[in-house]
Amino acid sequence: MPLVTSKEMFQKAYEGKYAIGAFNVNNMEIIQGIVGAAQLEKSPVILQVSAGARKYANPIYLRKLVEAAVEDTDLPIVLHLDHGENFEICKACVDDGFTSVMIDGSHLPFEENIALTKKVVDYAHGRGVVVEAELGRLAGIEDAVRVEEKDAAFTDPDQAVEFVERTGVDSLAIAIGTSHGAFKFKGEPRLNFEILEKITELLPNFPLVLHGASSVPQEFVELTNQYGGKVPGAQGVPEEMLRKAAKFGVCKINIDTDLRLAMTASIRKAFVESPEVFDPRKYLGLGREAIQNMVQHKIRDVLGSSNTLL
Ligand SMILES: O=C(CO)COP(=O)(O)O
Ligand SMILES: O=C[C@H](O)COP(=O)(O)O
Ligand SMILES: [Zn+2]
Ligand SMILES: [Zn+2]
């Protein structure tokens, strides 16, 4: 099956009240771990590429690796640009065969965000590509940009309706208290479900996206710290909250940090336990396995997209 857009999978997810996992990919082992899990769970999957990933791996290598995953499986796979910051990178990815792009104008004033998003929608829709946009600001780190907590802002439900109507965008990332990275909450985790419910009420049948949705499994935090790493106090979004979000119109749940933690914890452990090993296939293989197990759990027990192939 060739790459697909997220259109049908979101519609099905919306009706079935589950979500599709969107996982950030940076190299072969990460892609294989994610896709291996999706195969075992018979689940569609979104592989997303950030500007940082394109810079790290080289856009051609990444695209070819995703093409290999498509050729090697019968899964519906979406190739998505994560946090496109301007029209040019969105255009480059549309031209490059991506089936979905995100234009992230969330840092811009409302009218400018609308104008930029509309420009990307016009270009992408003309070529069969779907578009995600963002309204409201998440706290946390994204590429080189750090948004301080004081500058974060929840999505305004009325603005969300106007934004969707005026841009014609296919899905919308909203801010309800999640944030990028491994340190999401200082005290008790809290998301603003009132805002989410309001948006769902005003925009029925419209797919919403949750960024910063890693749950930061404590087993990886502990392993990382135990084997010489330093991520004390790392905390994510409780899995229960993600399940709840999927019931309220959130069709795409973004996960990057959990992949990083799974891989890092397993490689750190391997280095300490087997100091004589210097074959990258050994420890990268363990990293890939850790990712596959984590993603399989996520798909099956949190997102609920197992056995939903189109
Ligand atoms: O939103 C993300 C990618 O766009 C990833 O969020 P996490 O940092 O919570 O994994
Ligand atoms: O939202 C950001 C993703 O986690 C991607 O991170 P990155 O820009 O470091 O690749
Ligand atoms: Zn953003
Ligand atoms: Zn994000």
Automatic annotation (TrEMBL):
Zn(2+) 2 binds at residues 104, 134. The keyword Zinc applies. Dihydroxyacetone phosphate binds at residues 181, 212-214, 254-257. The active site is at 82 (proton donor). It holds the Pfam family F_bP_aldolase. GO terms for molecular function: fructose-bisphosphate aldolase activity; zinc ion binding. It comes from the Bacteria. One of its GO terms (biological process) is fructose 1,6-bisphosphate metabolic process. Pathway: Carbohydrate degradation; glycolysis; D-glyceraldehyde 3-phosphate and glycerone phosphate from D-glucose: step 4/4. Signal peptide: none annotated. Its cofactor is Zn(2+). Keywords: Glycolysis, Lyase, Metal-binding, Zinc. It catalyses: beta-D-fructose 1,6-bisphosphate = D-glyceraldehyde 3-phosphate + dihydroxyacetone phosphate. Zn(2+) 1 binds at residues 83, 180, 211. Binds 2 Zn(2+) ions per subunit. One is catalytic and the other provides a structural contribution. Its EC number is 4.1.2.13. Belongs to the class II fructose-bisphosphate aldolase family. Catalyzes the aldol condensation of dihydroxyacetone phosphate (DHAP or glycerone-phosphate) with glyceraldehyde 3-phosphate (G3P) to form fructose 1,6-bisphosphate (FBP) in gluconeogenesis and the reverse reaction in glycolysis. This is Fructose-bisphosphate aldolase.
